[in-house]
Design brief:
Layout lengths: L1 H14 L4 H8 L3 H8 L7 H10 L4 H10 L17 H13 L5 E4 L5 E4 L21 H6 L11 H19 L2 H13 L14 E6 L2 E11 L6 H4 L2 E7 L2 H11 L1
Antiparallel strand pairs: 1-2, 1-5, 3-4, 4-5
Amino acid sequence: MTAAVGVMLREWRESRSLSQQALSEVSTVSTRHLSRVETGRAQPTPQMILHLAEHLEIPLRERNRILLAGGYAPRYADSALDDASLASVMSGLRDLLDAHLPYPALLLDDHWDVVDANSAVETMLEGCSAELLEPPINVIRLCVHPDGLAPRIGNLPVWAAHLHQQLRHRAAQTRDERHLALTQEVADLIDVDTLPPVGGPVVVLELATETGMLSFFSTAARLTTATDAALEGLHLETFLPADEHTRAVYGATAR
């Protein structure tokens, strides 16, 4: 058990490109003790595991796995999103979706699957195949798939580059197999080697609709105080007009 914990912590440290010395400096744990933990010569307490996990920014589910490997009970709940214990949080997040009207907003899980969305999102999904709109709807797949939004995105290379960059960053942070698989799926659908660099003050989504080309910039907000693993990856993705035409179109729908 001790050896397994040490291997897991070392792998996370190396994935963060941290030396033992660098981790020692930020965690105030001596390099000697870190070395003994990583090689299995010292049995870390659950408090030490959680202390190192915090400084390594290890996801909550993975912290539970490391605790279990050390013979300790998991520390973080991992509830279903419809569990009664999460009802007030989920209700508050859904209130934020409606508060963003008349503009589109989605509540997404850590793999960019749609948990909920406000009514304004429907106008963005016109022309997408029924198969891609079967739950769970993955918005990254929807954007780059030829049967999804891709034919309607006026600046597809730029938007795809933005999505791929987000995915690569998240996959590196979580080391989650689903993030890695989705990153590869994007690469299979879009020639990522030819994508332009992401630049400019904001990346804009240009979407062709019956009312003309709409232009949005997006913002994402995550829960920063989540102690339930199910909530940790949830994020609100909201879209705002990036030009006056788009603002006018959505302003008309609000009246």
